[in-house]
Structure formats: C-alpha cells, structure tokens
Sequence to fold (984 residues):
Amino acid sequence: MEPDNSDEIHENLIEVLRTRLTKLIKVEQVLDRVHFIQDEQREAIRSRSRTEGESAASGSLIDAVIKKPHTPGWFTAFVDALKESGCGLAADYVQEKMPDPEEEEHHDSCVRLIQLLHPTLVDMNTEQVCRQCRVENLITEEEKERILAESRNTSKRGGARLLLERIVRGQKDWFSPFLHALHVTEHIPLYKQLCCSVSPDCNNPDEKSPPKKTGAKESERTEAAEDHGSPEHMEITVNEEPMDQCTDLYSSNELPDNVERAEPDGSDSAQSARGPEDDEIILRDYQMTVARPALEGKNIIVCLPTGSGKTRVAVYITKKHLDCRRTEGKTGKVVVLVNKVPLVEQHYTTEFLPFLKRSYKVERVSGDSQLKISFTEVVKKNDIIICTAQILENYLDRAKKGEDEGVNLDDLTLIIIDECHHTQKGGVYNHIMMRYLMQKHSNLKLKKVEKKPVLLPQILGLTASPGVGGATKMEKAEEHILRICANLDASQIMTGNLGEYTKEQRKMIVNVEDRRQDPFGDVIKKIMNDIHDHAQLSPTCDLGSQNYEQWVVQKERQAAKDEDQKVRVCAEHLRQYSEGLNLGNTIRMQDAFNFLNKYYEEELKKKSSPEEDHKITVTVTERFLFNLFKDNKDELESLAKKPEYENDSLSKLRSKILQEFSTREEARGIIFTKTRRSAIALNQWIQENSKFADMGVKSDYVIGGGDQSVVKPMTAAEQKDVLKKFGSGDVNLLIATTVAEEGLDIPACNFVIRYGLVTNEIAMIQAQGRGRAEDSTYTLVEVKNTGVAERECVNEYRKNMMMKAIDKIRKLSQSDYDKRISEFQFQAIMEERVRMKKQKQKDIKNENPSNVKFSCRSCSKHICTGEDIQIISGMHRVNVTQQFTKLYIVRENATLQERLLDYETNGVIACKDCGQKWGSMMMYRGIECPCLDVTNFVVNLNGKKISKCMKWSELPIKFPIFDYAEHARNVAMGEDSDSDEETM
Fold:
C-alpha cells in the first residue's frame, strides 16, 4: 500500500501539470481504463468531450481522478491507463520523467505546425497513413479501428482530423515517425512541406531517403540530431503564440472554419459502393448508447433525428443479434418492415446488404420485386428479409387461417419497424403488433397452466419523431407516446445526445402581402358564384379555402346519394375552380389557367362518342357549365399573362432561392409543396426563368407513386433516377411533395423551403432533418388561404412538448413505466376484441352478391347487381355479361396502358348515356373483360346507398371467381356462329 502522504503528493503533482496534461490526455480511451470513477461522472465527462472538446473534458477527468476519497492504488491505475491508452507522454509527466525544455518546446512547435498545415493534411489518404502510423506505434490498435471507421462511415477528412488529433496527444517524439509514415505511404508533397517548414535549409529533401526514426536512447537521439534527414531536433521556423494559449488544437468546437465536419447520419452515399472487405460497423457514441438495450435482447424504440444514423444502428443490432444466436447454435431470422416500396430497395442496397452480405443471406421483397417464389420460401431461405409491412401482414393472416403458404411470428427472432410512429390504430404496423400483443397475452395464460408459451421475436422501432397525436396538454402528449411504446411492446424509448454532430439550423418564416389587385381570382370567384346561383347552393366559408373544399366534397357525395345530378355535377366543377383559385395563389396564373382549360377540354371529350351514329347526352346543367367557362376563357387567359398580378408568395420564393444560390459556394436544397401539380409547375417555372439558370440552379421534381391523384404518378425507378441526380449534383434543387419528407434516402441539403405546406409536427421535424449540411436554413414561405404560419407555430409548440414528454417518460421508474405500458396494452387488446366482435356482426362477406346493386355515379342509371360480377386474381372485378356490353362505350387511353402477368389494360369503358368513366377494358389471356372501378358507382347494399366507396376492399362481397374456361367457350361459340352467318 502507498504511504499515507503519497496521495497528497500525487494530487499536487497532477494539479501542477494540469495545463500540460489537458493537451495530452485522450479522454475516451483513458475513461475506458480508469475504473475508480463513478459511472455517472464517467458519462458526464464523455458528454463534455463530445460537446466541448478534449481539453475541457480532460480537465473534468483530472478533477475526477484527484477527487477524494481515493481508492487504494488509484495513482498507479491512472498511470497504467495513460500508458495503455497511448498517452505515453502524459504518463511520463505524471511519473516525473520530464522532457528537456528544448524537447518540450520542440513538441509544442510541432503541434503548432500541424495546426497551420491542417487544411492540407486532412486531404491525405487517411487509411494508408493510419495503418502506417499504427506500424510506427503512433496510435493504438483501438484508435486505428476508430479512425478507419470514421473515414469510411463519415468522410476521409473526418478520419484524417481524428488521426491528427490522436497523434499529437500520443507518444513522445512523434513528429519524425509521422514524417516517416507520410514518406512510406508516398505522400511526398506533404512530407516535403513539413520538412521544409521545420528546416528552411531543406528545400529538396531526398524522396528516396525517409527520415530516421528517433529512439528512446540518448545515443539514438544524438544520431538523429546529426542526421539532416531527420527534423526531430532541427530549428522550428514557425513563429506562433506559446502553446499554452491554444487550449485544444483539435477539440470539436475549435476546428478551423475550413475543416470539413463529419455528417451525422453515418450513411454516406458512398456506402452503397462499399466492398465486401469493408463490412465492419462502427457506431458513434450516441448510436451505441441507444443501441445498448437492444443488444441485451430488449424491445426498444430508437428515437433519433433524421440523418443521424437510425438505420445504421438497426444494421449493427441485426448483426449482433444474428452473431449471438449463431454462437448459441440457434438460427436467427430478421424481418425489416418499411411502409413505402422505395424504402425496400434503399435499405437493401445502401445499408443491410453492404454490411451483412459476407456473413448472412439478405433479400428484399415488395410489390416491385421480380421474385418468383413465395414470401414463405423467402423467409425460410434467408437470414434478413426487407419488405413492406403489408406483405408480412398478409402472410401472418394466411398462417392464422391455416393456409400452407403462411408465416408465423415464432418463425422470426427480430422485427425492425422503420418509421414506427405509424404503429397506431388502423395502420398495418399496428395490425402486426396487435397479433404480437394478443399472443403475448395468450402466453401469460399458457404459463399459468404450465404450458410452453409461443416464442415471440424481439422488436426494434425506429423513428425521428413519435409526435404528440394532436395533444394540447402535456398529459395527453405523454399518453400518445406511451401508447406507441405499448403498441411496440417497448421496454424503453431511447434518445441520444448527438454532441459534436448536432447541427444548428437557422429557421425563418416569410410572410406575404395580400394582393392589392387579383382580377384573375376575381373572375374565377364570379364564375363560382354563378354556379352557386344555378345549383341554389350557399357556401358559408371563403372560396378556395380548405373549409370550402371540404364543403364542396360533402355536397358532391350527398348529391350522388340523393341522385341529384344538377348539384352533383356543379359541385364537381366547383372543386376544379377552387383548385384553380389555390393554384393562382401558389404558382403562376398561367398554370392555373392551363389546369382549368385542360379540365374543360377533357370534359368535352367525354361527351363525344367514337361512334358517329351515337350521341352522348349533355344535360342542361352541363351545357350551362361549358358555356360559362367558354364565356370567361378569353378574359382569364389575358389576365394570366400579366405579371403585375402574380401572387406575392411566388415572388418571395424566387427571392429566397436566388439568395441561397448567390450566398453559398455549393447550394443544394429542397422545396416541399402541397400537390403534385404544384411541384411540376414550380419546376417548369424555375426551368423557364433565365435568372435561375444564371445562378446555376438545376431543378427537378419528385412526387408520389400512388394513383390517388389525377396527376400521373412517378414510378419507383423515376424517383430513384431523380434522387441519384440530386446526390451527384446534376440536380441541385429538388421540388417535392410530402413523399420526400419521410424515409427516402435524400442527400444532405443546406436549405429546406416549405412552400405553403404545413401538416403536423412529425412532418415538420422530418422536413427540417433534410437540411443536414453545415449552416443549413429552414424557411417557411406563406401562401394565401393556407394559414401555414400559424400552424407552423403550433407545430413548434408540439415539437417542444414532445421532447419534454419523452424526457418525462424516460425519467419514470421502470416499474411505473411497465405498469402504464401494461394498462395501455390490455386496453388495446380489449378494444381489438370488441372491434372484431362488431366486425363479425357487421360482416358483409357472407352477403349474397344479388343484394348489392350498382348505378352510374353521373346519371344514376342502374348498371348491374353483384351477381353479374366475377373476380380475377383475387383483385379485378369484371362484368362479362351480354347485358352489360350494351351499356358502355370503349375509349382509348394511351396513358393507361399497363402489362401485368396474364393481363393488360389498354382502354377506358364509359357510360353510353353520360360519358362517366366506369373502369378499364382488360385483356385477360386473350379475352376482353370490362374491369370495374367502384369509385365510379353508387353502391346500394340491401337498400342502403354507399356513395363514398373508394376501393373494392371496402365492399368485401364474395364475388364468384371468374370461370375462364366457361367464358372462353361462350366467346368461341359466339364467334363460330357469326362466322356461319357470314358464310351463308
């Protein structure tokens, strides 16, 4: 045991050396090896290291080391920790092995030299130099792995920065070996620059003669001093302030402005090109912190900002999960669930496959997949399956029904749910998790009767924001988040302090002035009021507002139900004018006019029959509406061409875009807008404006792939192509709908603009997260009638409430947390049982198809009953009766052409009387089959009209399966009969 007064001597020594030691200690490595420091204090020091830098954290570490009372042997343990951490020079100091004053001054000067040449040094080949520095014993093996990981996962310059930081805090006499490392790795220009900086006489160092390494022995040092090739003891010509005035050369908050910082997402776009030898996964501290409970097998939610590497954490957990099961001699099966088809390919190619393909079989399945085997077989043959959630739900349902081709929960060992905040009522994620919770509840019963429970997979949820579910009070916000935790059976919700990786974002709201004159909008409003008078409608809200649009939709639905065709068709036209009014407030008046003009051209085409001897009826109301637009068309077209009447929002948007591109060296941004039509129009506006081209703006748009809108959707391949161009720099301004807010892998931007678009706090956080580059801005540009400025303030309030609610939940004791989670789970199970019971009572699947009748949505003519409808491939409802063929006309539609397996669609079928579209003509294995779209009909079930049936799944009648052989026989017989008549 040490003498009684030795502690005080050592304390005083360390205190005297404090200033020097703070420049030499590697905090993270030393902390890992000093075991007498309390865990709370250890984490506080780590946090300070991440936020304030090594010097500040070193001071805290020294305070913790010399804090009384001491554990026996604390000083020896501290010295050993310094040695093992590669802090040899610091260890020499505390052991009173002081270097000579000349050596100390030489060390400080070399550090200043590295600081001056830092912008050049960070462009080195980090991996080569790092490996050679390990050979030179300048860094430890642990440091080498961290530096290589930083270089691969963030950037090579980030890795170089870390390497230089480690070297100057490491061993004594480090400068000459570092020069040797540069020379061996053929960094001759850097080697020359450093040599000439330390010795002005050394204008041309011999490239073939690397500097000799200095050893510990005095004779070796003397030889090195005499050798002109080694600058270890040469005169330093750098004239700078003393080292003591530079607190911490490489602390995170003291880097030179021109030094590149690492991206926080750890998912550089180059990751997709990573070779099989680069499959090691290194997490940052905050990522490891949030992952730790999952590595212990617990169900958790990882809540990290967009771009901070949630998916990388999931990949790491996946690998450790499978490794652990393999070690135990067990098989592992991981399913990664996403809620959008493009995310399947994205997670597969950029994250899971590059890191895990060497050790495990990885496969992806979605509606776009070309796999010819069933999902059940995919699960059996692979270790990791990335798929859309609906596919897993379908196969879980098959297994429940006892079908052979199904998947059970106990077939899986880990389920990862991306964007898990969607695990709420009605969502497919929640359907899957409800099966999980029901089985968990059943397991409790099985255990009570001493029966073997069904094994359930581990659950990992990923989200950037759980939201508050519209809560206005903290209590309700907590309840919302706890319900999500309960639905995911999460034992914890994990958040992380990003520390030095946090990027502050400047936010601003741009308000707009009301137009002094809006003659274009006035003409549209006059037309709308004329329609109100014609249909005897009295709106109670502002024309063009969201409330007005909702009012019009309700009127249209009610009129269809009441078979009031006058009101129904007027309401449909009012919707278009309301949209035109909004477009005039959002984009150019010319775009709004083109939209209305195109709509009326299409409506007139519907009233023209391809058969010359057949005329489609045009009602009095329809004729009135056509003439009303015709009478005002010229005036609208003329006003649309007058720029002095353009909306102020567009002017403000133009100024903001030009400002971003004129003040940034490399601007890259996203504009979020509400509709597909506005995204396309804004892109066209930018491309046609020469001012944008002069500033180097290269724009494109990305919109959704669903077919709910009348605007043609974007395919997954088209989305991918645009995003690829955006990543490479061929496109530097992306105009996007909300499809780009969540999930899609979009490169870091330095400005984000939400143009007249505000949804909820989740979307706001995700949109802000797209601006991940340094000095990024987030701007909201107001648009008339949207109320976005007020709603954005509400979202900011909800965001802050959400963060406070998460903090409160994390501070709950585990017993209190578990109790509340159990309550919510039992409530969810009971609600599900009640829902299922009601569903059975209301189940219409057993209804006789003859009880359902269909009539044209436009003219209310009776079309058919459910007895006339058959189903193809479990999804296509067709009517192939002779009576039905007399009721429709076929119109070509090139935009509808589509080929799928055994069938193709290449035409539109429409009502013979009014021209209302009914569906498409489908060619199925050589036979034409009229395929019906339920949205175009008013459905009558047992005398009750259903006017808002949007998809066939809402009408789950068991229609008979299409009998191909029988129908083919009837068609062939009909053709033979026609042929015989012609012969006669």
